[in-house]
Amino acid sequence: MIKAAFFDIDGTLVSFKNRRISNLSKEAIKRLREKGIKVFIATGRALFKIDNLDDFDGYITLNGCCCFVNENNKLKEIHRVSMDKDDLFALTDYIKSNKFLCRIVTSDNMFINYTNCIINMIYSLSKDKKPEVVDFKDYINKNYEKILQLNVFISRNKEKYLMNNILKNSKSSRWNWYFADINSKYGGKEVGIDKITEYYKIDLSETIAFGDGENDIGMIKHAHIGVAMGNASKELKKEADYITDDVNNEGVYNALKHFNII
Questions:
Q1: Edge-to-edge strands of the sheet including 110-112?
Q2: What is the pTM of this model?
Q3: Where are the domain boundaries for CATH 3.40.50.1000 in the chain?
């Protein structure tokens, strides 16, 4: 019997086309809650970047590095893991001679080392406010304990080199073509699932998770039922227990109906 459902946001609950959650997905979540099944967000975003998704029992944010439960309409942080100090200092030295865009993410803000046409385009499309530009080394030296995630705007080959040689105590994942998420090696959406289920005393055998990106792989493998959206990456689909329809064809609703959960 399913007692907890975990949902990625972008490409899973929210369409990349219209940036909205469908009415049927809203109905599915409502039915889950009516049946006493707890529903949770599991995202690479920080909490302050989650919009119009407030009717949930908890939030796994920043790929499992900052987790919250909703108690009496008040959010309570139950888990946090910052990035490795040595990795951050090593990156400040590396990035001086290997310039690339790097966005710093804390629990309540974002900063970036410089801007270019890619960043301008991304923020123009999303209509979000661009992060403040900061001196990378100076910010990290003064605030390393606050840093929960980095977004590095580099190719996959450069990402592989960076992880193997510079960020040795971190791990990377992607849900966006433009950048990779970098988090502590002790993070992961699967870690967030464990923290949430431990808090609510729910067994892992009572969980279902939905995702579409590579940063969902750990979660999809970890949950009792792992569902890949029809628009999911090939890598994620290989690990899923079930592949549903894509986000624009009511994949969440259809999968929950398939398993007779709603």
A1: 132-133, 110-112, 102-105, 149-152, 180-184, 170-173
A2: 0.93
A3: 4-81+187-258
Q: What is the 3-state secondary structure (H, E, C) of 149-171?
A: EEEECCCHHHHHHHHHHCCCCEE
pLDDT tens, 196-227? 999 999 999 999 999 999 999 999 999 999 99
Q: Which CATH class is domain 85-184?
A: alpha beta
Q: Are 258 and 241 in contact (CB under 8 A)?
A: no
Asked whether 46 and 26 are in contact (CB, 8 A), the reply is no
Fold exhibited by the domain 4-81+187-258: Rossmann fold (3.40.50)
Tens digits of per-residue pLDDT, 23-35? 999 999 999 999 9
d(CA 97, CA 232): 36
Q: How far apart are CA 219 and CA 7, in angstroms?
A: 10
